[in-house]
């Protein structure tokens, strides 16, 4: 390993993991093709706050807004796909699954009839 490469390796070794994760996430998106476009109107206050935060993060305004919005969107999508139950609620759910099948004559009657909705 050359002196420069050794120094670079030492810098990366001393870099906190969260910074490396942010750097890797950013670098992964650099080579990707971006063809979509989003336009926004913002108030003067919003623009000042976003620019200040982008500057403090050493990012462009576009890069900052895109990364924060994407991160928030991913959190919302993940939360929408996850069901959280308290311990008591999970116990009730598990008991309901394990309980004997409840006979539902009305449901059985409707399920045996032909649907009025065309299936085409």
String of helices and strands: HHHHHH
User: By helix and strand content, what is the structural category?
Assistant: mainly alpha
Largest sheet: none
- Oligomeric form: single chain
Tally of DSSP β-strands:
0
Word description of this protein:
The chain has 6 helices and no strands. The radius of gyration is 27 Å and the shape is elongated. Helix 3 crosses helix 4. By secondary structure, the protein is mainly α.
Task: Draw up the topology in text.
Blueprint: H1 3-13, H2 17-30, H3 44-56, H4 61-80, H5 87-98, H6 105-112
Helix pairs in contact: 3-4
Q: What's the short version?
A:
With 120 residues, the chain is mainly alpha-helical. 65% of the residues lie in helices and 0% in strands. The N and C termini lie far apart (68 Å).
Key attributes of the depicted protein:
single chain, mainly alpha, 120 residues, 6 helices
């Amino acid at each position: 390993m050359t002196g420069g490469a050794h120094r670079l390796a030492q810098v990366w070794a001393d870099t906190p993991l969260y910074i490396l994760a942010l750097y890797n996430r950013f670098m992964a998106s650099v080579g990707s093709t971006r063809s979509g476009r989003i336009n926004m109107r913002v108030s003067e206050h919003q623009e000042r706050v976003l620019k200040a935060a982008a500057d403090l993060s050493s990012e462009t305004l576009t890069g900052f807004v895109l990364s924060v919005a994407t991160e928030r969107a991913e959190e919302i999508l993940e939360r929408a796909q996850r069901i959280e139950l308290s311990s008591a609620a999970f116990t009730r759910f598990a008991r309901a699954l394990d309980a004997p099948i409840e006979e539902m004559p009305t449901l059985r009657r409707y399920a045996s009839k032909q649907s009025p909705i065309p299936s085409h």
